[in-house]
Specification:
alpha/beta; 7-stranded mixed beta sheet; 9 helices; 42% helix; single chain
Length: 222
């Protein structure tokens, strides 16, 4: 019953405030092609990412975890004509599916796709003369979130925003004895946040079409 109500509320808000075209709708259904659970952010969450990018006047955005390109389209559409979204995906078939959706959405020229292990690709983005990122969205394997976040700090400017998805894990994040690698990764990430003086952050619980989860919003201050 609770899930039905959450779905209904998301559908109500989306019908009024989130306008999806065919490219977004296809990207949202990418999991069906791969016979996987729905891994993309919800429509309201996609619009939130879009708004955060626009509020921050982001010109360069880093995304770790492309999957079918749903969040990528929302982020790319927030960029100015000379902006750039750099997105990283481990699985080639996911990246290829995302490329089709990005082209259909008319934003492929704004997107630089990388395929491979993010922790191998991120160091290569740290090139002399390369402009820092204004926003980072992390939606990838949970055990490596602390390392992803460390790279986000290194590659971004002061004032940049970092959004990390799936940090509640159905409430499992509160259990220090949970041996799941993803749970432990999210806990290490929050402990890392708590120990830094150059970042201010909060984590928010959410309910909706994706069930019970949440995200972290961090501002790089120094």
């Amino acid at each position: 019953m609770e899930q039905e109500r959450w779905n209904s509320v998301d559908a109500y808000f989306s019908s009024l405030l989130v306008k999806e075209d065919e490219a977004l709708s296809k990207a949202a259904r990418a999991h069906e092609h791969f016979d996987l659970p729905d891994l993309a952010v919800s429509a309201p969450q996609g619009k939130l990412l879009h708004l955060l990018a626009r509020i921050g006047h982001a010109r360069r955005i880093l995304e770790i975890g492309t999957f079918g390109g749903y969040s990528s389209i929302w982020l790319a559409r927030a960029l100015p004509p000379d902006g750039r979204l750099v997105t990283i995906e481990w699985e080639r078939s996911f990246a290829d599916a995302a490329a089709s959706r990005l082209a259909e959405a008319g934003v492929a020229h704004l997107v630089e796709q990388h395929v491979g292990r993010a922790l191998d690709i991120l160091p290569a983005l740290d090139r002399p003369g390369t402009a820092p990122f204004d926003m980072v969205f992390v939606d990838a394997n949970k055990p490596d979130i602390p390392e992803y976040f460390t790279w986000a700090l290194k590659l971004s400017r002061p004032g940049a925003v970092v959004v990390v998805d799936n940090v509640v894990l159905g409430g499992a994040v509160t259990d220090p004895d949970d041996t799941d690698a993803g749970v432990q990764g999210v806990r290490r990430f929050h402990e890392l946040l708590a120990g830094r003086t150059d970042v201010t952050a909060t984590s928010i619980q959410t309910v909706g079409t994706k069930g019970y989860d949440g995200f972290t919003l961090a501002l790089i201050t120094g």
